[in-house]
Request: fold
Amino acid sequence: MSKVELRGVTKKFGRTTAISSLDLCVEKSEFLSLVGPSGCGKTTTLRLIAGFIRPDSGKVLIGNKDMNRVSVKNRDVGIVFQNYALFPNMTASENVAFGMKARKAEQGTITTRVTELLEMVGLSAKATSFPNELSGGQQQRIALARALAIEPRVLLLDEPLSALDAKVRNTLRFEIKRIQQESGITTIYVTHDQEEALAISDRVALMNSGRIEQIGTPGQIYSRPSTLFSANFVGVNNLIKGDYKGNEIFRWAGGTVSAACSCGLKPGRCWLSIRPEKIKIEKTEESQSNSVSGVCRGKIFLGPLVRLAVESYGEMFLVDLLNENLQEISTGKRMDLYFAPENTLLIREE
Ligand SMILES: Nc1ncnc2c1ncn2[C@@H]1O[C@H](COP(=O)(O)OP(=O)(O)OP(=O)(O)O)[C@@H](O)[C@H]1O
Ligand SMILES: [Mg+2]
Reply:
């Protein structure tokens, strides 16, 4: 279990700057997710930590030790990739044992550890199966057990669940979290699924063009996006263009809105952000301060929720409501929306 640190790391491939002066510190036993759009540098970051590639400048440290001259094998890092990559000619238990054998562990130790790990991932019954006799989810569990077998100090997971269907993903993501909590291994988890990142991480680092755009707990990332990119990337958000007038007053095409205190924001062009679930269609004690009138342009069913699209002064507000007593709302209906200042956030225009 070691701390992982990148200090001012830059990595270029020809003319492409994949990683640009990146600073990142993952604490000992922390579960950190890297999320961000395709090509933003997530895999490159993992490859730099694992040692498959070296930084052009800056440093990678594991357990406070500079890894510049340390080979992949000596970094004590376990890696699980998207496409399982099990050895097809080896059984599940031989796959799990592979790393320990390569490190010349004693046979007794190997047998005990393999039994333990297969139990941990719930596949004791499949010990003698070959990869082609296992489902995708089972193969991914074996890949995880194989990565854990060498008792790595750091576990790197690159979209390990993306090839699986939604149900298996859900089960496995909680299993990964449980195993990480039990073992206390410092874990860096790459996913493009931001919901997954919010669900299982201690902290989330949102990457954009080779840099970290925002880092924080899932709650902070969701409720306090610090930039327009964060507000757009994580979850569904209403972003209304207008002007900050000072004194917590925001003006847009539809009038003025009392917004939450926006520390340090200077008057000028900005965005008002409000999550769909924070908008109400009835006046309540908490939501009465701001109201906007509009016309319902659409209604979609989301299981427990119904999402309305309400047009007002050229902006479309998405509103998520519990799926109860909403029969009377249909397309074309005029309606008022209410929301409280403390549920809004003002974001500077970049
Ligand atoms: N070996 C390589 N040679 C050339 N360019 C590369 C190489 N590896 C990565 N890149 C480039 O570096 C950038 C970052 O790539 P990276 O694979 O880290 O992205 P990513 O965030 O993992 O994306 P995805 O979500 O699609 O997996 C991209 O522009 C990519 O084209
Ligand atoms: Mg990638």
Remarks:
- The chain has a mean pLDDT of 91.
